[in-house]
Amino acid sequence: MTQEIFYPDLNDFCRTYFLSNRQVSAAEASLLPMRWDEQEATLFEQLMLFDKISFKVYGENILVPVLIRMLGIKGFEALIEQKAIGFTLWNSNVTHLVSDVPGVDPLQSMVLNSPAHADPEASITQGLKWMKPRPSLDLRRRLTRKILPLYQIPSSDLPKDAVTIVHSAYRSGKLKLMGVDTGQDIRNLSLSARSDLCKCATELMEYSYLLSSRMTSFSNFHYYALFNESVSKVRSKDTLYQNFNSISAVEGFPDLRTLRSELKIPLSKLSKLRQKRNAVQFRNWLATTSYAAGDVVVTKEYIDAIADAKGFFETKKGKLAKSVAMTTVGAGVGALIAGAEGGFFLGATAGKLLEPAADFAMDMIDEFLISGLTKGWTPRMFFDDLRKAGAPEN
After folding, report:
1. Which of 202, 227, 252 is the last residue of a domain?
2. Residue 187: phi, psi to the nearest 5?
């Protein structure tokens, strides 16, 4: 089960500090190092728990220079090869009237069509201009070629549909649950009510996109409860995240953000660490287990997974392979003892007897080598790898 998460926060971070149309305040500037560390910690956490992150991009993709700064060029390109990252070029918007104009619809939907907002290649090209030092032409072309297929663009109907649904929610009275007064004509609302409607439509756009793209998100959406039960598909990330924390508590581990800091795991290790067999299997196991919510349930599942783990040679298939292997060894030893003539006869006979078993044995060996089941896989091996990642290198 592939788990893909939509992440808008890095885009917000970049636009606040590097692309803002306003001057960054002294208070905000003082928080930059801490917020940079928070973004690195989140990146580590989400790429260890999820198969893929799709970053929200608004206009020029300055996220690429930031990710390269965090991961290094090799680490960034490795994640591309793993299909672990993607970009959603966000070209949809909903606005509201800031002046009182009675009788006019308070919301407007729009799809941006400037090159940076509508053309993935222009978004990449303009974003790469922010790299320091400026990359060579060959590097820019290579990165553009690799990043371009990672782009997605939401449907052009998204903002219009969001406005339509908000109108319906207003008429049906559902917005009363959010504190919006629905007792008057929607075209004669106060500024604060118009602002609430706009926020609702904006969140609904993202919500609709997540559902259509089968993604999840760590964003907290105020208005999700208004619409339908499919919200659970998006909020399943909460269960997965909570379940991981319950399991890490059993192992005496903090959450992944704190863990990375305590073990001083550099982001340059991220691409290799998340591709380890134990990490891949752990993500699959956690995604499946997380359908059963609750600390008690997931902790029991984890302990059962550890307690019930069987090594390869303890399984029925493994026992048969072991028996065949021992027979082969016995025949070989007999050939050596019998001497030249006896050995030739026994060896030939054994070879014929084992011809059908040879393919069978190869299947056993292949499974043995690939899945590493000599001692049985358990989700604890994921934590073992994390401990090793934090160990000092010789």
Report:
1. 227
2. -85, 0
